[in-house]
Amino acid sequence: MEQVFSYIISFGASVMMPIIFTIIGLCIGMKFGKALKSGLFVGVGFVGLGIVTALLTDNFKDPLQAIEDIFSLNLSVFDMGWPAAASVAYNTAVGALIIPVCLGVNFLMLITKTTRTVNIDLWNYWHFAFIGAVVYFVMGQSLVWGYFAAIVCYIITLVMADLTANKFQAYYNLPGISIPQPFCQSFTPFTWVINWVLDRIPGFNKIDIDAEGLKKKFGVLGEPIVLGVIVGAIIAAAAHVDDFANFSGYLAELQKANPHATSTDAVMKITKDILFLGVTMGAVMELIPRITKLFIDGLMPISDKTKELVDKKFHGKKVHIGMSPALVIGHPTTLVSTLFLIPTYILIAVLLPGNEFLPLASLAGLFYLFPIVLPYTKGNVVKTLIVGLVALLVGLWFVTDMAPAFTQAAHQVFAATQDKAAHVPDGFQAGSMDFASSLFGYCIYAAIKYVKYVGAALLALITIAMMFFNRRQILADEKRAAAGQTKETE
Helices marked H in 314-380 — which ranges? Predict the structure, then answer.
């Protein structure tokens, strides 16, 4: 079983998800052609998303590295991005069996009414495997500790998916869907607290600027594609600060490759770099909403059929289908907020005391910060940005503190598999925003590492309390629904 799952996972999301969703479709009674088509749409969506995010990270890596050099930054935690985290997650004894273990936990929670979510977002199970793998290595390669950490994270995420489902469904008009992805859900506590505080600040609670409002207020300048061009151009210009200051030196470098290069050629080269990066960022902002439609086209038939089957098996009781947040990352407010956060996130990383992590490869993951935030901020760009800034600021410290453990796990995985995604450059430690900056992941890691058995006991109590709280909510809701049906019958 370990070899089978490891082999399938090694294909990556773009191949793994069509296979899995085709099988799921057949198991729930869909015709082969329709199941295959749904699976392929999801796979193509992951391919498209991978291309667009690579467009962002590949083209911004050098300018951001130049900015680091210009300002003499010494940040020792290298941004490995989510591929490294996923590699560490699945290439361990914990990750190899994480899918069947978590599916078993999900089934037990459904029959005990401690969750309503059927989590079929199988690719993102790597988040649970990641925290399990890190704890596994920190605790001397202990499978017990590794699976304990992964299962605690899974249960907490399922409960959070239930608690946020109604708001999520109403805001995005996606009935029956919940988001059991722990990275997204880990921002929910920040959202609850910050949104509550902001609503009680006189005057601030009157500010209501959403993405559509930006378009009306600023016209074409409020469009995500145009904002993308502007922000990309600003970052590119910042990367050329030294070239502007020492123009003769820049020209001399060009003349090494082309002795006939002139000052005009140097100006044109800088202008080209600035415009290219601007248009690239604009392209990312425009393409992501179009790609997310592929996920909707692929996942919704699976969701509808699953819901139909679950309704029969659970006799009409309310059940949520757990889906990937990729369904909604193309929302205009998500795009605008991510756009503003990219340069701000880098600036915070540079200035924040105690931080050693400079985000580069992880920038593409910022889109996944907001799917659960928007239903609570009601798409308010200002509130959404504040939530994102606070969560990311705290997350930088999380990444820095987890870096030694992440590095240890990455070294072990690279030594065993030679997977280049897990190779940590010499002189650096490993880091990634996704999933190392997650509130859930870090708290589980820190509790076990720093206070061991006391931490484990506390985590167990919190998890059990959340399960019982959720069960009470579910039973109360079922009671209200039964009472309503009785009145209708009468």
Answer: 332-351, 374-377
- What are the E-state strand segments in 236-345? 320-322
Contact between residue 444 and residue 129 where contact means Cβ atoms under 8 Å apart: no
Q: Among candidates 410, 402, 405, 444, which has minimal Cα distance to 426?
A: 410
- Alpha carbon distance 196, 367 (integer Å): 23
Give the CA diameter of the chain: 92
Burial class (CB within 10 angstroms; exposed 0-12, middle 13-18, buried 19+) of 72:
exposed
Give CA–CA dist 49/61, Å, rounded: 18
Contact 240, 270 (CB under 8 A): yes
Three-state secondary structure call for residue 117:
strand
Residues in the chain with pLDDT < 70?
A: 1-10, 12-13, 68, 70-74, 215-218, 222, 314-316, 485-490
The C-alpha atoms of residue 376 and residue 135 are separated, in whole angstroms, by 32
Q: What is the pLDDT of residues 393-404, one digit of tens each?
A: 999 999 999 999
Strand intervals (E) in 173-288:
177-178
Which residues lie closer than 8 Å to 165 by C-beta, 6 or more apart? 116, 117, 177, 178, 320
Q: Vertex 132, ends 446 and 428: CA angle to 5°?
A: 70
Burial class (CB in 10 A: 0-12, 13-18, 19+), 256: exposed
Q: How far apart are CA 251 and CA 264, in angstroms?
A: 10
Helix (H) or strand (E) holding 239, with range, is helix 224-239
Q: 240: which 2 tokens?
A: 């050329």
DSSP 131-150: HHHHHHHHTTS-HHHHHHHH
Radius of gyration over every alpha carbon of the chain, rounded to an integer in angstroms = 24
The mean predicted confidence, pLDDT, of the chain is: 86
**Residue 105 exposure: Cα atoms within 13 Å on the Cβ side:** 23
Alpha helices in 71-210 (DSSP H): 81-90, 93-96, 98-111, 126-138, 143-172, 182-185, 188-198
Q: 390 and 353 in contact (C-beta within 8 Å)?
A: no
